[in-house]
Design brief:
Layout: H1 7-12, H2 15-36, H3 38-41, E1 45-49, H4 55-60, E2 66-71, H5 77-84, E3 91-95, H6 100-105, E4 115-121, H7 129-142, E5 143-152, H8 156-168, H9 181-188, H10 207-215, E6 219-226, E7 238-244
Parallel strand pairs: 1-2, 1-4, 2-3, 4-5
Antiparallel strand pairs: 5-7, 6-7
Length: 247
């Protein structure tokens, strides 16, 4: 029996798949530099939600003053990060599925402390609504600065391409096979209300709903498609969103 592939092997193997998945890190680094400047990054306190194995730090080559990474330890990615970054005092890694555990384990939070930047790449689409709302409340309380978020685009013509590539090439992507024929049609024309949402998965996810919700909580700075930011967002594989807290 063939051994199941690990996360990094699934996502970052093969030229095309690796290309599209690494674009979000390039997008993040470019916008960090443009909005904050190279000199300021090293003095930042950064919070990352869904940090995994800290690929964000590896790809962007940033070394912040304080980095707090939060992850559910899906596929043991956080354990890998803890092993790799053991002994670095500026990196704090917390295994948690919701923000309530963070304040229990991390005593830095007080009325005078704020993060400068919050990062969450390809994570918010996996959060059930109550957990998402908890994280938004947490960010509102402990961040005074910018929020960088990327999520996948699961509707429109690009969705259709992704769907059939996954169906015929990546047969270990079980969620792909849960679409009804009618749902494939409605997703391809952008009517996601007709697609039954899989909580915590990609099926039925609509970044426009997330964008509307986050825009009600934070000041929207930018929305653009990744990797082709010169095209409308729905013609891309991912979308990047930048917000600013309203402190």
């Amino acid at each position: 029996m063939e051994k199941p592939r690990g996360y990094n092997e699934r996502i970052f193997s093969g030229y095309l798949r690796s290309y599209f998945h690494t674009r979000r890190y390039i997008w993040l680094k470019s916008n960090l530099l443009n909005l904050l400047g190279k000199d300021k990054i090293s003095s930042l306190a950064i919070l990352e939600i869904g940090c995994g194995d800290l690929r964000t730090l590896e790809f962007t080559k940033i070394n912040p003053k304080i980095y707090v990474g939060i992850d559910s330890n899906w596929e043991n990615l956080l354990d890998q990060a803890k092993s790799k970054y053991r002994g670095l005092n500026n990196i704090i890694l917390i295994e948690a599925k919701n923000p309530s555990k963070i304040t229990q384990e991390f005593n830095l939070f007080n009325n005078d402390f704020f993060f400068d930047v919050c990062i969450s790449l390809e994570t918010f689409e996996h959060l059930p609504k109550p957990i998402l709302e908890e994280y938004v409340e947490f960010i509102s309380k402990y961040l005074n600065g910018l929020i960088f978020i990327t999520v996948p685009i699961e509707f429109g013509p690009i969705f259709l391409i992704k769907h059939f590539v996954k169906r015929f090439k990546y047969k270990d992507d079980s969620e792909t096979f849960k679409y009804k024929l009618s749902e494939i049609f409605f997703a391809s024309i952008g009517i996601t209300k007709k697609v039954k949402r899989i909580e915590g998965g990609h099926k039925g996810f609509d970044y426009r709903v997330l964008l509307e919700y986050l825009s009600s909580k934070f000041e929207l700075i930018k929305v653009e498609g990744i990797p082709f930011n010169y095209l409308p967002a729905f013609m891309n594989f991912q979308v990047g969103m930048i917000f600013k807290t309203k402190h």
